Amino acid sequence: MKTTSLDRDRVRELFDLQGSYNEATGGKFSEDPYPIWHRLRSEKPVHPGTVHELTGISEPLMFQGLPYPDREHFSVFSFEACNEAFRNPRVFASSPEAVDIDPESGSLVHNSMLSMGGVQHRQYRSLVQPSFLPSNAQWWIQNWIEEAVQLLIDGFVDDGHAELNVDFCAAIPVLTITGSFGVPIEQALDIREALSRDKQKIIDILAPIVAARREEPQDDLISVLVQAERTDESGTTQRLSDEEIYTFSLLLLAAGSGTTWKQMGTTLTALLQRPDVLDKVREDRSLLRAAIEETLRWMPTDPMFSRWVTEDIEFYGQDIPKGSVVHLCVAAANRDPERWERPDEYDITRPTKSTLAFGQGAHICLGMHVARGEMTVGINALLDRLPGLRLDPAAEPPRLVGMYERGATAIPVLFDTK
Ligand code: HEM
């Protein structure tokens, strides 16, 4: 990223919270859903119905797996059952098309890897995976995350106050991903603007970069993608076409920006509302990793992911017909008392146990180490550069809201200036 400033007003305008917590995914929902999910789980692990209906929301909501009005819907609330479904992609497929075709045939043609299945998904994922391995987290941090984080803090460090959700958390993931594409910061904001309205505009920005990297690779993600190749069992060499690179880039923007933004905001909210825990983390930064993991368990930003059932099954006492949509409520699974003691408590000293916030099995989040890198570098930098960081007692305190995309309302903070 070769730039030194960022238009803060434009950032605010583009990352408008009202726009993000839109009604379609249940943005207006501001109650605590966990008591209801505890009750449902204690009755039985699998219930007929969608997660929002079972939570008491009657208006139609949209998310992956919704609305599909012609299909039967079931929701899963225990850790064990959700985990099992994630790990059985043959029966619990990631797209409706897989229901009527053999997902192992490799003949499915889908738009993005998120909805692919079987051989096609494995081959595609293995082509793009290397850049996202834990060993490459530093590549992301040094090339893009660190600079985006410092640039954003530069914008408010002298003010003594900030609104961290929009001025900080929202922008980091988009700047990281567009930085990795080789897009300069001014255009990064154009990409953010086009994301929900005009995908062709994003492709128009990417096309010359892809062409240039095919000629002369640089140290960025598009260069890795144009060079990636894999020889399959039959000896055929596979490479990604331009269209596949555009599709993957759009998936990264869609899957990696709103999620990391909201998860970072939730982590900051949890810490700022517990000053004693924040102090411990400030003193001993090795605890930050545990705080991030505990937030992912306690309040994952996307509480539900869906699957399409490819054959008639009985699953944890519930008959589920072929073609049904099964909603895996990872948020409820992450507070299953069978797996965690005092599951509603936010406790960063818990023994480490895997959660389902990043999913599980073949589709487990490809970008999870990038997301962890963004949250770790971002929060560490705030603690380093903003002494006395605390919630603004005169402002409305942050609340955690939303049904299918959960995150904090504004996070107004004060800090000392030199
Ligand atoms: C805290 C932030 C994030 C959360 C909570 C999250 C969560 C998830 C979950 C639960 C899945 C699995 C979906 C399913 O099984 O149907 C997933 C998949 C995915 N995520 Fe993330 N994600 C985050 C950040 C990111 C970032 C930063 C990137 C990219 C840089 C990313 C890229 C992807 C991709 C490409 C997939 C599809 C993987 C596949 O289908 O094999 N995610 N994410």
Automatic annotation (TrEMBL):
Family: Belongs to the cytochrome P450 family.
Native species: Rhodococcus artemisiae
Keywords tagged on the record: Heme, Iron, Metal-binding, Monooxygenase, Oxidoreductase
Any one Pfam family match given in the protein's UniProt record, by short name: p450
Entries under InterPro entries matching the protein: Cyt_P450, Cyt_P450_B, Cyt_P450_CS, Cyt_P450_sf
Positions in coiled-coil regions: none
UniProt cross-references to SUPFAM superfamilies, sorted A to Z: Cytochrome P450
Source species taxonomy: Bacteria, Bacillati, Actinomycetota, Actinomycetes, Mycobacteriales
Superkingdom of this protein's organism: Bacteria
Full protein name: Cytochrome P450
